[in-house]
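Lab meeting minutes (informal)
Scribe: AK
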Amino acid sequence: MKIAIDAMGGDHAPREIVRGVEKAAKDFTDAAFTLYGNEKDIQQYLTSHERIEIVHTTEVIGADDEPVRAVRRKKEASMVKMAQAVADGQADACISAGNTGALMASGLFIVGRIKGVERPALAPTLPTIDGKGFVMLDLGANVDAKPEHLLQYAYMGKIYAENVRKIENPRVALLNIGSEQNKGNDLTKKTYDLLKKANVNFTGNIEARELLEGHADVVVTDGFTGNVVLKAIEGTAASLFSMLKKTMTKSVKNKLAAGIIKGDLLELKDQMDYTEYGGACLFGLESPVIKAHGSSNANAVYHAIRQAFDIVKNDVTGTIKANITEQNG
């Protein structure tokens, strides 16, 4: 198995990207890795070349670059070269922590969509209180969506949950403003009817406040709503831990208490860290394209690689292709 990685994407590139790859190379001995980026910058952090290759690139797509224009004009960018390697069959999957819009554009224009998939979906696995997590899609690949798109999201999420997360008959829910069938806008009402007839374990609507309670294994929504929810979860978690830290350090008594429960607090923080589940996969493309978080450290990069490895190993893309073909008759 060959995995292509954009070594220049993300806030801590290439240092944390390289460290994450080296960690993965030790654990996934039947995988080979190609790092795309400035060879000199990468080499200063690379301690082992075992199954790790560097392809020198002269350009980088930055966070402020306009996604589509950057992909079309920066042909020598690390992200573009990485995606091209997948399209040419030189790699089985690719990963980047760089510009999200540019990675989606690279996926669409270079890797290409699966025939029959109308809109690819960005799908991370988010944490739950019980530690099992759930797949949510779409979280920003498409601002607008039709009921038929959300139906495809449900099938793709179900396939991923079954084959990679190893959940038997995963529960599929529709994000809505209420649990009743008649709640929501035109999109959610029509999607509800489609999901009710579909060959998925549809459990009905789910409200945003219930997402982290573990009531569903797959949650579908449009990209605008999904991205808002994701940012709300991220912001709430960060603010909560910031408030907790401030409270725990404001007096000697609190500092002593914090010292006693420090291990438990760190465990709680890890439990709510969704990067432990990997990156956000762009489902519906001809090959796996994974978006790691922009602030990814080596551990987050490692888990994104583990995710890519599992997706390729379990042929998730092939299963999605077969399912879409079946649904289209």
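Next up, CB showed the second protein from the same session:
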Amino acid sequence: MSSAEPPLIEFVDVARSYGEGTAKVYALVGVSLSITKGEFVAIMGPSGSGKSTTMNIIGCLDAPTSGKYYFRGVDVGALSRDQRALLRRHYIGFVFQGFNLLARTSALENVELPLIYRGVPRKERRGLALAALEKVGLAGFESHNPGQLSGGQQQRVAIARAVVTRPSLLVADEPTGNLDTARSHEIMQLMTSLNREEGITILMVTHEPDMAEYASRTITFVDGHVAADQRVAA
């Protein structure tokens, strides 16, 4: 990375509060951190520690009450709602604990969905979706709907859908939360390969230390603060 290239993500003294007066609650208090392109970061912490609020701000689903959030050097707070939606659509892929697949829709059509929103022509869309399914090990499962797939396979479809647009950042919220141990490790191995081979920056919320071990860096939140920020030696 050249020294001139800004971090992919940068928080400068970010705070997020909810409510007013005596009912005011701070989810984040003066958080500063930066994440560079290509990192695989696990976000950990107890319930209510601020990790989900951090992910929502990074994913442009929420905004700081004060402080600055920069994405690739751009002040996200200065963007309009439409511009933030475009940033989210073009640069960020999302994976959730609950898969969030359309039940009566094939794996291929689920993966095509973000490309439809971006106006990609049908033939090109189909080719990109087929390639994404192959990348996650689901070649041959294109016509299966979610009900015909295991939990691990459904999460693979969800990951294919998240990366089909070739995002700069993959935001994964408890991606193994609904899976057994063996499937969880398979999903983490897949995400590790996407990080290393595709260069996708990954930000993952998890409460499972053995899943966090796949990341190259772990940031731990406690009471709205960064309590620890540890990198794994290469």
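CB comment: The helical segments are 51-58, 81-91, 107-117, 122-135, 151-163, 181-198, 209-212.
No objections, moving on.
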